[in-house]
Amino acid sequence: MKRPSWDEYFMEITHLVAKRSTCLRRQVGAVVVKDKNILATGYNGAPSGVAHCLDVGCLREKMQIPSGERHELCRGLHAEQNAIIQAAKHGTNIEGSTLYCTTMPCIICSKMVINAGIRRIVYEEGYPDKLAEEMITESGVKVEKFQTHPAKAGEAP
């Protein structure tokens, strides 16, 4: 039995966190880590005390809004936003941390990541947001696509 790497360990935790999501379109989990310690977690869903999309339906589906567009027309917060907000609410400094996320952050989350001082993003799935990719690259935040089964020497990735 192979012991998981730190990236494997924290990415596996993002999948557990994502199971708490109340979004009808996509379950996303985020974990903020520094010095191998989990500082905050977040999943996508409506704010505390507000009806969940699971209960009232998806506004974006009703309006036929494609993924990656019109982020403001949604009852929910993204997983990355909730993780950053959780850290702020509890007075946890996340500067210099790594964000593990099941999905690459959108432009709104990317701007929050940059200003929160997060230095590295490890994500699993892409997200259709070219501006987010450009701004993250420009900011110097290190971005790594997580490979569940890394290619062996001589194999194509």
Give the SSE layout.
Layout lengths: L5 H13 L10 E6 L2 E7 L9 H4 L2 H4 L16 H11 L8 E6 L3 H10 L3 E6 L4 H10 L2 E4 L12
Parallel strand pairs: 3-4, 4-5
Antiparallel strand pairs: 1-2, 1-3
Helix pairs in contact: 5-6
Please provide a written account of the structure.
- There is one protein chain.
- The chain is of the alpha/beta class and 157 residues long.
- Helix content is 33%, strand content 18%.
- It is built from six helices and five strands, in the order H-E-E-H-H-H-E-H-E-H-E.
- The protein has helices at residues 6-18, 53-56, 59-62, 79-89, 107-116, 130-139; strands at 29-34, 37-43, 98-103, 120-125, 142-145.
- A five-stranded mixed beta sheet has the order 2-1-3-4-5.
- A hairpin with a 2-residue loop joins strand 1 and strand 2 (37-43).
- The longest helix is centred in the N-terminal third of the chain and has 13 residues, at 6-18.
- The protein is globular and about 40 Å long.
- The protein starts with 5 loop residues before the first helix and ends in a 12-residue tail after the last strand.
- The relative contact order is 0.16.
- Mean pLDDT is 91; it is low at 151-157.
User: How many whole angstroms does the radius of gyration measure?
Assistant: 16 Å
Oligomer: single chain
Overall 3D shape: globular
E-strand count? 5
Structural class: alpha/beta
| Low-confidence regions | 151-157
Helix count, per DSSP?
Answer: 6
Instruction: Round the mean pLDDT to the nearest integer and report it.
Output: 91
Proportion of helical residues: 25-40%
Which sheet architecture does the biggest sheet show? 5 strands, mixed
Order of helices and strands: HEEHHHEHEHE
Q: Work out the strand percent.
A: 15-25%
In the sheet with the most strands, the strands line up as: 2-1-3-4-5
